[in-house]
Write a structure and sequence with these properties.
Blueprint: E1 2-8, E2 11-18, E3 21-24, H1 41-46, H2 48-61, E4 65-67, E5 72-73, E6 84-88, H3 92-101, E7 114-118, E8 123-124, E9 129-130, E10 140-141, E11 144-150, E12 166-173, E13 176-177, H4 178-184, H5 188-191, E14 197-205, E15 216-221, E16 224-230, H6 238-246, E17 256-258, E18 280-285, E19 289-295
Parallel strand pairs: 6-17, 8-14, 9-19
Antiparallel strand pairs: 1-2, 1-5, 1-14, 2-3, 3-4, 6-7, 10-13, 11-12, 11-17, 12-14, 15-16, 15-18, 18-19
C-alpha cells in the first residue's frame, strides 16, 4: 500500500494513494477503533497491524477517492521526532567519482558504515520548492536515495531480524551544499540547510517490496538523466544498515534512514554542475514512484 500525507481543510490528512487517485482515510472516522482516526502516517504506524488491516479494507471498499492533483502534498511524516539518519558513501561508483573529484585514491573505500544526520527542518514534500540558499552555497547538489521508514521500536537489531522493524520505504533527495560540507569537515551543516530534504511522495509498505536491495534508482535534472543505478550495488544492505545503526542506539517508529546515493552527482561532473534556480529534480525508484521538486530562489 502507498500511504501519503496531505494538507486539507487546515490540517494534515492521511491518504492511501493508488494510480492517479488518493483515498481520504482521515475522513472515514467510523471505521477506526476510536474517535480520532490517524491524521498522518506516523499515527498509522503506531496502530500497528490493526491499522494496516483497516486501511487495506478501506482501500478495497471505499468510494471516497480524490484526484492526487487536487491535494497539497506534504512529507509523508511532516513532523519528524528526530533527525534523519543518513548513510554516506554507500555505492561503489559514487565513492570512486568522489575520490577522483577530491584528488584521492579512487579505490579508497570505507570499511565501516559512515553515518551523519540531517535536521528535521530540512524536510519538505513532493512538489515543494527547494530553496537555493544562493547567499550561503555556490554548490547546491542532489542525491537520489532509498529511505527506510522504521515501524517498531528496537535496538541491537540483528541483520536477520531487521525486516521485522521496517514499516516501509520512500524516496529521499539528500540535497547538499557541497562547499559548506567541505568547509566544516563534519557533514551536518552542509546537509542541513532548510528545505534540503524532499521526501515522498508517499511511503510504500514493506509488503509491496520483497527485496529493497534490488530496486532501480534514477534521477533527472530537467530532462537529463544524471543518476541511473540499482540498490543491489550498495556496499551495505538495508538490513546491515539497520543492524549497525541500532547497535546501542534505539530506533523508534517513524524514524527515517537514508541509505546513500549512487554515482552521477553534480559536483563530480566535469565541469561541476551545481543546481540552479528553475531546475526540476525528478527521482524514480522501482515499486515506489516519482518524487519531483524544483529549485527556487
Amino acid at each position: 500500500m502507498h500511504f501519503c500525507t496531505f494538507y486539507l481543510s487546515g490540517q494534515y490528512q492521511l491518504g492511501a494513494a493508488q494510480d492517479e487517485n488518493c483515498l481520504f482515510i482521515s475522513n472515514l472516522s467510523a471505521n477506526w477503533p476510536s474517535d480520532n482516526p490517524p491524521q498522518t502516517i506516523l499515527d498509522l504506524i503506531h496502530l500497528g497491524e490493526e491499522g494496516l488491516e483497516i486501511a487495506n479494507n478501506l482501500r478495497n471498499t471505499s468510494k471516497e477517492w480524490i484526484n492526487v492533483e487536487d491535494v497539497k502534498w506534504v512529507s509523508p511524516i511532516p513532523r519528524l521526532q528526530k533527525n534523519i539518519f543518513c548513510v554516506g558513501r554507500n555505492y561503489r561508483e559514487h565513492i570512486i567519482e568522489g575520490n577522483i573529484a577530491q584528488g584521492r585514491d579512487p579505490n579508497l573505500f570505507p570499511t565501516h558504515i559512515e553515518l551523519f544526520s540531517k535536521a528535521t527542518t530540512t524536510v519538505i514534500g513532493h512538489k515543494d520548492t527547494i530553496p537555493s540558499h544562493k547567499d550561503i552555497t555556490k554548490m547546491l547538489d542532489y542525491e537520489a536515495e532509498l529511505a527506510i521508514v522504521i515501524g517498531k521500536r528496537g535496538s541491537n537489531i540483528s541483520a536477520e531480524e531487521a525486516d521485522e522493524f521496517i514499516f516501509g520505504y520512500t524516496i529521499l533527495n539528500d540535497v547538499t551544499g557541497r562547499d559548506i560540507q567541505r568547509l566544516h569537515g563534519q557533514w551536518f551543516k552542509g546537509k542541513s540547510l532548510d528545505g534540503s530534504c524532499p521526501i515522498g511522495p508517499w511511503i510504500v509498505n514493506k509488503s509491496v517490496i520483497s527485496n529493497p536491495n534490488g530496486l532501480g534508482i534514477r534521477l533527472w535534472v530537467n530532462d537529463e538523466l544524471r543518476q541511473n543505478s540499482n540498490t543491489s550495488t550498495m556496499i551495505f544492505s538495508v538490513q546491515k544498515i539497520i543492524s549497525e545503526l541500532s547497535a546501542g542506539l534505539t530506533l523508534e517508529p517513524g524514524d527515517i534512514i537514508a541509505t546513500g546515493t549512487p554515482c552521477g552527482v553534480g559536483y563530480a561532473m566535469k565541469p561541476p554542475q551545481p543546481l540552479k534556480k528553475g531546475d526540476l529534480i525528478s527521482i524514480e525508484i522501482d515499486l515506489i514512484g516519482r518524487l519531483e521538486n524544483i529549485v527556487g530562489d
